[in-house]
Amino acid sequence: MGGSFASGDRIVAGRWFRSPFGPFADIMWCRPDGRRVLLAPDERVRDFVARHYAFDDLRVAHVRVERAEAGVIEATAGPIRLVLRPGGTSLASTMLAVRPRRLRTAKRWIGIEDRVFRPMLRPLFAAAGVRTTGRTLAGTREWYAIHDFHTAAATATIDGVTLGPPAPGAPAGFGFSEFPAEPALVRVTSFFELDEASGFEAPVPRGARTSGR
Description:
The chain is α+β, with helices and mostly antiparallel strands. The chain has helices at residues 43-52, 91-97, 101-104, 107-125, and strands spanning 2-4, 10-16, 24-30, 36-40, 57-60, 63-67, 73-77, 80-86, 133-135, 141-158, 161-162, 184-192, 195-202. A hairpin with a 5-residue loop joins strand 9 and strand 10 (141-158).
């Protein structure tokens, strides 16, 4: 889940239910001055994420991503509070659901989606900078299997100060892929070349779920 705001801040929060480190949540924050901040729950997660994505500031903090009442999803860490209210089923969500899970998690198919379908479907997902496969900062190949996508209404605060309405922002530059330009909730499985047996899985909440990148 994530969004960019009129203040120039861009926030992406993830809740990973399955990973080599167990379940965890993290937040990537790009400030208006372009400084990229990672908020991770412990040193192991911090070091792993920082190895593969680009940041200027690394922080260990209590990170929480939970579903509240009426389907609202809230992410908090340090000074950050991000709240998303996902919209209903869209054409984009319907199109993604057509693919059987076995197909959409196949690395060869993910590559085809990135090369062939991404340019055609870009307007549906407000996703000019979104990629489904590429090289991480460490040079490792990563794949994103996208399961579901919902645009959302979003609000956010930093130290209690509102960031204003959602607004297009400059690329955050965390990695080879950008988050969609509009606030959204995205359910993905991430696979890393170095550990093909275990990917990071981020199902969108059912009590607490998450976003993918």
